[in-house]
Design a protein that fits this description.
The chain has 13 helices and 17 strands. By secondary structure, it is an alpha/beta fold. It has three domains: 174 residues, 3-Layer(aba) Sandwich (Molybdenum Cofactor Biosythetic Enzyme, Chain A); 77 residues, Alpha-Beta Plaits; 152 residues, Maf protein. The mean pLDDT is 96.
């Protein structure tokens, strides 16, 4: 079965608020074997809502509406659904009594406009909302000759999510045919999206029953495989078969076959080799260390790091000779290697890593542009160093540098 989620509220069409309820609802629907084919955000205009509802009912089996059930003039979800289905609204006496009781328990007067929340669509089942005043509603109807399931839920997350779990999920489990959606995420580092697709498209396009998506972000490529089948064994067999072929094609670009982050993989390899890591950062300002320490238990392998912006700090804390900086400049392969070896030596770590560069927007010279980064990774067997020039603003350059440094550590440990 296919579903659509409509988030209602003009505030979500501004830069300041976003829909998060749909993530929770999608996860729960997928667990039932229901795919979410569309997510729509509609402002508080009844005409637009009616158009969106009718469009949704023409293309999916399950429609979940979130928001627009409050007491104010711009809360129009009930009215829009009723109009879309050519149904009437009735004021439910039990809900009126519940609203008065709620106001009394709070020792506040009952505003007249609150009674709007007691309006129920003809034929709908009221869904009790223990966390708020606006109840949900459930409709199981025929529309255009097909069975449609419609849920109206309040917008606040603390009301929407518990109400969906308690009232909608049990109903859906009873109605939805058994089906499994198998989802697997593979990740690769520092391979351009176009290059990856050139390698992978001839493979994944032959699996027409598996939905494959590629998402690239600052040196990280996420490949998601989704397959829906009547039974779990068949769904997972198809996903695992395609995943195996993708792993083979990506070779050492691939770092995770089950969604782990790059920092998790680095710490896994460190633990596997009973090795330790220390880092020295200049232009990234601690971003590399922050990513590593975001993983619980990182202290078992990560000794620590230093942020050394000035030349004097590079010398004092990492032992980089001042004459080396004077000869090659702070942003150079030579200084990057000295930083990595220096932090490794001073901390006693197995592996030392360093980043030095020009994150911009100032600091560039004729020979050293904004985006120039030198990264080094050293261990007892030697030292790897690379030079890259990344494009973008200061934040993107720093993120690219930290991503490349993590991937270099991973490869060195491999």
């Amino acid at each position: 079965m296919k579903a659509e989620i409509i988030a209602v509220g003009s505030e979500m069409l501004t830069p300041f608020r976003q829909d998060t309820n749909s993530l929770h609802v999608t996860e729960k629907l997928n667990a039932l074997g229901v795919t979410v084919n569309f997510k729509t955000i509609v402002g508080d205009r009844q005409r637009d809502l009616v158009s969106a509802i009718r469009t949704a009912l023409g293309r999916v089996d399950i429609l979940i509406l979130m928001g627009g059930l409050g007491p104010t003039e711009d809360d129009l979800t009930r009215e829009a659904v009723a109009e879309s289905l050519s149904l009437t609204l009735r004021r439910d006496a039990a809900q009126v009594a519940a609203l008065h009781a709620r106001a009394a328990s709070w020792r506040i007067p009952m505003p007249e406009n609150n009674l709007k929340q007691a309006d129920v669509i003809a034929g709908a089942t009221v869904l009790p909302n223990p966390n708020g005043s606006a109840p949900g509603q459930w409709l199981d109807i025929t529309f255009g000759g097909y069975r449609k399931l419609i849920a109206l839920l309040p917008g606040p997350p603390r009301e929407c999510r518990p109400l969906f779990d308690a009232e909608c999920l049990p109903r859906l489990k009873f109605i939805v045919p058994p089906r499994t959606i198998a989802v697997r995420t593979l990740k690769a580092a520092m391979i351009p999206e176009s290059q990856a697709d050139k390698l992978l498209a001839p493979i994944y396009t032959t699996y027409t029953d598996v939905e494959t998506t590629l998402l690239a972000h600052t040196g990280d490529l996420q490949i998601t495989l989704i397959c829906s089948k009547p039974d779990a064994d068949t769904a997972w067999k198809r996903v695992d078969e395609l995943a195996s072929r993708i792993e083979e094609a990506l070779e050492d670009w691939l770092y995770s076959s089950d969604g782990d982050s790059l920092e998790q993989i680095v710490l896994y390899y460190l633990g596997l080799r009973q090795a330790t890591l220390a880092v020295a950062e200049s232009c990234t300002g601690g971003l590399l260390a922050q990513r590593i320490t975001s993983v619980p238990g990182a202290s078992r392998s990560f000794l620590g790091g230093i942020v050394v912006y000035s030349n004097e700090m590079k010398t004092q804390f990492a032992g980089v000779p001042m004459e080396l900086i004077a000869e090659y400049g702070a942003v150079s392969a030579e200084v990057a290697k000295a930083l990595a070896e220096g932090i490794r030596s001073r901390t006693g770590a197995t592996v030392g890593a360093s980043i030095t560069g020009i994150a911009g927007p100032t600091g560039a010279t004729d020979t050293k542009p904004v985006g120039l980064v030198h990264i080094a990774v050293c261990d007892p067997q030697g030292c790897d160093a690379v030079e890259r020039t990344f494009r973008g603003d200061r934040r993107h350059i720093r993120e690219w540098a930290a991503q490349l440094a993590l991937d270099m550590i991973r490869r060195r440990l491999m």
